[in-house]
Amino acid sequence: MKVVDELKYDANGLVPAIIQEEGTGRVLMMAWMNKESLAKTIETRQTWFWSRSRKKFWLKGETSGHVQNVKNIAFDCDGDCLLITVEQVGAACHEGYKSCFFRSITGDETVKITEPKLVEPSTVYGKK
Amino acid sequence: MKVVDELKYDANGLVPAIIQEEGTGRVLMMAWMNKESLAKTIETRQTWFWSRSRKKFWLKGETSGHVQNVKNIAFDCDGDCLLITVEQVGAACHEGYKSCFFRSITGDETVKITEPKLVEPSTVYGKK
User: Fold this and answer.
1) Using the 8-state DSSP alphabet, how is residue B108 labeled?
2) For A29-72, how does the pLDDT look when each residue is reduced to its tens digit (9 = 90+)?
């Protein structure tokens, strides 16, 4: 049996996939995969996710060109979470930051932005 | 309003929390927090999670001594995922590995173990 068949998908058939940048170790984002999007990720070596709101597959970077080239796919002891190491082209975050985790909670429980914006989103996604 | 009140918890009141080791950048584990466990994490500077199966709070390391001392708490652009940087005492994984992500999917879709076991679980959790 293949590993993709043995993972523990949730009631909606999904597992969270943590995306980490090779080299820097920066955690870039978390998104959801189902068995089919994981199989497409393994096959194409680019990240495919399942959009819970749009109920469709999405290739990361399809619109922006900010694709993720897969270097390694790990899974956790419970078999219900993925850790995927990638080479990130451009910004992972749709808000234009390298990482979606560009904000932290400060000691007084307010918010600080911890990294510079790489690109203006309107230049890669078009104006709405 | 505090940040913990503004995050987007799922239908069960939970957000996934990715735990990353300070310094090495190793992603150690993923577990779930609700608003109260996040508040306890902020207050105590050690990681508290919500066990979905046991329906109770758990302090990471309460039995094993392998606690996580919190260094930073980030959250993603959608406000529905946490990235917590910690100093990890001992092994994060209950199977005795530093990281729960100690297995990877190989090119032929079999499994390889990618790191040495740090401790024998029976020595920290007792024999069952």
Assistant:
1) T
2) 999 999 999 999 999 999 999 998 899 999 999 999 999 999 99
Q: How many CB pairs under 8 A join A and B?
A: 94
Which residues sit opposite B75 in a β-bridge?
Answer: A103, B82
Residue contact B101–A25, C-beta within 8 A? no
Whole-number Å distance between alpha carbons of B77 and B70 = 21
Instruction: Say what the pTM is.
Output: 0.95
pLDDT tens digits, one per residue of A64-105: 999 999 999 999 999 999 999 999 999 999 999 999 999 999
Give the residue carrying structure tokens 């040495």. B116
Give the pairing type, strands B82-88 and B14-21: parallel
Q: Judge: A75–B27 Cβ closer than 8 Å, yes or no.
A: no
First-to-last C-alpha distance (Å) of chain B: 46
Cα-to-chain-centroid distance, residue B13: 17
Is A102 in CB contact (< 8 Å) with chain B? Answer: yes
**CA-based nearest residue to B104, from A11, A42, A34:** A42
- Asked if A42 is an interface residue toward chain B (Cβ–Cβ < 8 A), one would say yes
| Residue B76 with chain A: CB contacts under 8 Å | 29-30, 100-101
Nearest to B7 by CA among B77, B79, B78: B79
ipTM over 0.85: yes
Closest Cβ opposite residue A20 in set B27, B42, B75: B27
Whether residue A104 lies within 8 A of chain B, CB to CB, comes out as yes
Helix (H/G/I), strand (E/B), else coil: B43 = helix
- Which tokens go with B94? 């209950």
